[in-house]
Amino acid sequence: MAKRSDRRTRRQGAAAAPPAPASNAPGPGSAAYRTRQFWLGVLAAACLLVPAAVAVAAIAGGGGDDEPGAAASARPPESPDDSVQREVERLQKATQTRDKEQVKELTDKARGFADDFGPIVDSVARTVPPGSEETGPLASAADVRRWSRTMRAAGGYFRETVSGETGTNVARGALAAAVGSLGELVATYRLALADPSPRAALLERVRGQRDVAMRAWQTGTVQLDAINIAVGYGHQHVPALGAGGLPPDDLPEGTGATGTP
Predict the structure, then answer these.
(1) Is the Cβ–Cβ distance between 229 and 256 less than 8 Å?
(2) Separation between Cα atoms, residue 148 and residue 126, nearest integer Å
(3) Among candidates 220, 228, 127, which has minimal Cα distance to 178?
């Protein structure tokens, strides 16, 4: 009887007592460790997968080599030497265009001057004939005043400094010298007309000034012909001044032209 009572007591005590924790149940520290392992694994996977996805997207969206973006990326970067060469070519082209325009303007201006100066030179030749020491009739005071106005206007054109290619500058300088000599000639002729006493000496000076002007004019017109050929306009013959002047050659106007004037 006593034994059955002890067994009953032990069963009741076992039923009332709480179950003992399992030996393999994780504690708080173990759960935190597994959480850190999980996120470290996620981060490692991201480091591997994200660059791969970016590379795939770039390959899929890059297009063929014939697209503008591909051509631009394939083109090598421009070197400083290439940039300098391109700028040199641009400046050369601009200089050639400017010189061609200057040649055309100077040639047209010289043709106009030839028309304006012709009557002056012809009238002076009647007073002091070329190649002779004799003296002919004098021009009127009204004529000489008109000559003065013509030469002042022509001198104004050459007072403006214009720089161009060497050949153009030579032609311009020679024509300017001719205009300057003709202007001095007119001033001397006017003095000779106003005062009879030194007239012979003054007219002799007029003769020398006329000869200098003719030589300068001829130099300028020959140079004009040469630079017109050089820029592509072909032969351009500005009329000579006076009966003794000769053209540079007898070729037709425009012979040898390579461009459109």
Answers:
(1) yes
(2) 18
(3) 220
